[in-house]
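Trying the structure run again after the queue cleared.
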Amino acid sequence: MRIVMMTFMLCLPWLSMAETESMAGPRIGVSYLTPKAADFYAEEGIDVEPIVVHFGWQFETKFLSSDNGPEGVSTLVPMIGGFEQNLIVPSLNWILGIRLQNGYELGFGPNFSIASSGVTLVGGRSFQFGDLYLPINLGLVMSESGNRYSFLFGFNSSITR
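Done. Tokens:
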């Protein structure tokens, strides 16, 4: 975890100097909690089923791009899950990643939730239609409280600054 945080800290000055493009939009998805993760929630007094529905918002900044090369992206994704189980389970992901010209993307970063903190690995594809992007992603959160596997999708549009 220290290595992840140090990587982000070292990148912050570089991020602030680059020309940026901001994108934001809603996210919806589902997560599967491994038995270890579900047990950890139970120990905290939260009775949760292994499939959890999430709603959230993605704030993305493209900080590196070229006409024919990959894009560097920094993404903050606050989510709330568990509504279908009469629960409110907040989480926050900060992802630093890369998006190729064909829309495929890969990233990693810290995850914070009421259960624990961990590392998120995410991959997927963003389909572009003019200024509208439709991202579809698969994610894995690895933590001491157990792994969580997620499928998320949504949409956003670009605003150049």
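Confidence is low (pLDDT under 50) at residues 13-17. Worth checking whether this holds up in the mutant runs.
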